[in-house]
Structure formats: C-alpha cells, structure tokens
Amino acid sequence: MSGNFAVSATGLNKQVVTRFAPSPTGFLHIGGARTALFNWLFARHHGGKFLLRIEDTDRARSTEEAVAAIFDGLEWLGLTGDEPAIFQFERSARHAEVANQLLAQGDAYRCYATPEELAELREQQRAARQPMRYDGRWRDRDPAEAPAGAPYVIRLKASREGETVIEDAVQGRVVVQNAELDDMILLRSDGTPTYMLAVVVDDHDMGVTHVIRGDDHLNNAFRQLGIIKGMGWEEPVYAHIPLIHGSDGAKLSKRHGALGVDAYRDEMGMLPEAVLNYLLRLGWGHGDEEIISRERAIELFDISGVGRSPSRFDIKKLENLNAHYLREADDTRLAALTAPRIAARLGLAQLPANAAELLARAMPSLKPRAKTLNEIAEGAEFLFKNCPLDFDDKALALLDESARELLGKTADALGSVQTWTVEAIEEATRRVAEEAGLGLGKVAQPLRAALTGRTVSPGIFDVLFLLGKVESLKRLNDAGHASASRGN
C-alpha cells in the first residue's frame, strides 16, 4: 500500500477525521481494539472519516506477521479504514523535511552532545534527584564550535516560558509548565525521524481533526504541540481516554484477559458483535443501556460520554454479553463457525457433508445454554461421535444394571415410534417412566449418558430427535453392551 497522499495547504480539513495508529510489534491488543472502536464510532457519528496508520518506524520490532494480525483483527471487528492504510516508515523523507524546515526557521537546532556526555548528564541528575531531561547545552551555541564532521541530532527548540494548556475532550483542562518540557529530538544522528515527530507530521498531513488515544499519551501531546506551533499548523482536538484495568483494579495483564483480539475469536469463541458491545461499554455509557447494536452505537456515541476513570475488564460480563448475541445469531452462521471447532475436538480434518445442516437444526437446542462458540461445540460433539462412545466416569456410573434394564424398555418404546418427532419421542419416554413408577429424570439421565457419553447435553428429547431413530437405537444398544462389559 502506498504511503503517499496530498498535503492540505490550508491545514486540517474541517470534516471530522480520526485515526487509529497501532505499532506492528505484536497482536492487536484488546485495549487497542477499544481505541479503534472509539475512533471509528466518533467518525461515523459525525459523518467523518476513519483512517488507519501503521507506525512501523521501529524496524527491529515491526513484523509483517504483526501487520497482518492487526488488519485481520480490525476486519473481524468491522473497523476497517475508509482509505488504504498509511505506513509511517514510507514517509521518512517527509518527516525529515519538516524537521529541516523547523531548523531553517530557528525553531530547532543541531545538538552535537555525545552519548557519553548525555550519560554523564543523566547520572548527575539522578544523583541530585532531579528530573532527567536534556539541559539544552547546544540550544544557543554556534554549530561552528563543534568538531568538523561531528555527528549531530536535530532538537526542537521548545518554549521555556509560560505554560502549555490542552482542553482535552475527556480529561478537561490540563496545564503543564513549559519549563518541564525538554528539547526533544526530531531527527537522529543518522537522519531518521523520531516517533514524536512522525506522529505529528502524519496526523497533520492526513487531516486528522481529533486525536483519540490512550491517556498514556497525554504527556506526549504537550511535547508534540511544540512541533505543531512551530509549523503554524492547526491544533487537533485531543481526547485521551483512560486505560483498561483488570477486575482487581491493577494494570491489565494476561491474567485479566489482556489478550490479542484473535484470542477472543479463536481460543475463546466470542462473536465480534459481543466484543464490540463490551468494549463500547468499557469507559463509555448511555444511561442503563447494556445491549447496544453497532447502528445504535453510531447514533449515540460521542466523546462527552467517555469517563475519566479507568474501566475494569470483567471476562464474566463479556461472556454474558456473548451468550446474548449467540441467542440472537443466525443458526446457519453459528453452524459454520462451530463446525471446525467440533472437528478439532474430535480430531477430524472436517465434519461429514451433512454437518452444517444438522448443526443449524440443532442450534435452537444448543445455543440457549452456551456462552461461547466453544460451549456450543462441546454441546454438539455428541452428534458426530461414532459408536462405541467414549463414556466419561460420571456417565458410566449411571449405566448400572437397573439403568440398562430401563434403557432396554426405552429402546423398545422408541422403536415403536412411527413418526420421529420431539412430541412422539417425549410421549414414548414418559410412558416408560410412568410404567416403571419413576420420575422422568430417572429415565432421562441414563438415557443422556447412553446417547452422548456425558451427563450434560441439550434437552434429552432434542438429543434423540437430532440423532435420528436409527442412530439413537444403535447407541442405546451399544451402551447396554458397553456398560455391561465394563461392569464384569
């Protein structure tokens, strides 16, 4: 993808333009996904544009695999950009052009301080318990004082007087004394631009009007404003959103669920609409509404609804939301999503040709009791097992001699069913229970164990109906023989 685009001569476009700018050094983190969502929704709400930028200037850590993972995660969530993504590294010449312009107009300068000198300065500041920042030793010196051919960096000549104020759309009015800001590096000694320079130039050239990002970047904004003011560019609206914490209030980590978006899809079996709904409610809200569709979110979302306090990640709430969206989801879609999971559980390359149709018919029985696609797969596994079944210990314990006798009577009753419907199956099974003087559960539990090899499944009449008459009777017969042989 090309990194070239037109630079506006009049500054920022007045149309709302937001951007999501991840670094391709790993997967798309769940916190990054929320930032992308907030940017996407804000642009959609205001009829604007949502753009993507891959900040790949860290060449040592940026990988093609990470870029692919970011695009894959965003596509799964439906948060693709409105234009082809920009790759920051491709624009290095433009970044250097801005640095040299600041140098030419006196808003930047060459710094010839050696690494050894800077290390000594930091050590002195550390010993004196002073803030560690560059002391401006080349700020007003004549470059001619430097040794001929000595390497140098280009530093921004930051204002030292007064204060810098940001009217942040989330954090409110934030003030920093300019004396606390040092002269940051714009171009390294090898001529490559720093992240701080590249971000500002790219935001300007892309026409970004609203910079919506994590509040860990708030301090960066004050330093980046020095470049913006030096170039005479219009300042964007800043909105620094609080980070996500774990349920215990600590910084979000893997033990809280700080995984890549792909893990929520592949390993945990979440639906994208559930993840989006959950991320939306992490730090933003509208009254008591919990279930909010994408269309409703576009209608309601604005930065004013974002709180200033960190939100807490709760995996149980996400699972409950996912359960809701599973119940609402199309059965054919769920069948397609679940089939490969079932095949993997059974060690198969793929399920039989009729699997999709069977799964779709089974979904009304499977999805009401499931919170994830994995749980649906677990619940549907019995449909594709071959006899003899592998009985777990709890199921085998139910198949004692009295149960085998009961199963024989049930098999006889079911064998006489002419039309294999749920109603006819239920009637035959209840008749067996009544004749034996037992409650239905006393028949249903060994029946479930015999048909599925487990003690948990969809409703027993649904199990029988979905398996079909021939397979059901075969499994009942096999279970009787298997349990009897194990009991001897």
TrEMBL record:
Keyword Cell membrane among UniProt keywords: no
Catalyses which reaction(s): tRNA(Glu) + L-glutamate + ATP = L-glutamyl-tRNA(Glu) + AMP + diphosphate
GO molecular function, one term: glutamate-tRNA ligase activity
Motif ('HIGH' region): 22-32
EC number: 6.1.1.17
Superkingdom: Bacteria
Binding-site positions, ATP: K254
All copies of domain Aminoacyl-tRNA synthetase class I anticodon-binding, residue ranges: 352-479
InterPro entries on file: aa-tRNA-synth_I_cd-bd, aa-tRNA-synth_I_codon-bd_sub2, aa-tRNA-synth_I_CS, aa_tRNA-synth_I_cd-bd_sf, Glu-tRNA-ligase_bac/mito, Glu/Gln-tRNA-synth, Glu/Gln-tRNA-synth_Ib_cat-dom, GluQ/Sye
Record-linked Pfam families: Anticodon_2, tRNA-synt_1c
Keywords carried by this UniProt record: Aminoacyl-tRNA synthetase, ATP-binding, Cytoplasm, Ligase, Nucleotide-binding, Protein biosynthesis
Cell location: Cytoplasm
Assigned protein family: Belongs to the class-I aminoacyl-tRNA synthetase family. Glutamate--tRNA ligase type 1 subfamily.
Subunit: Monomer.
Protein name per UniProt: Glutamate--tRNA ligase
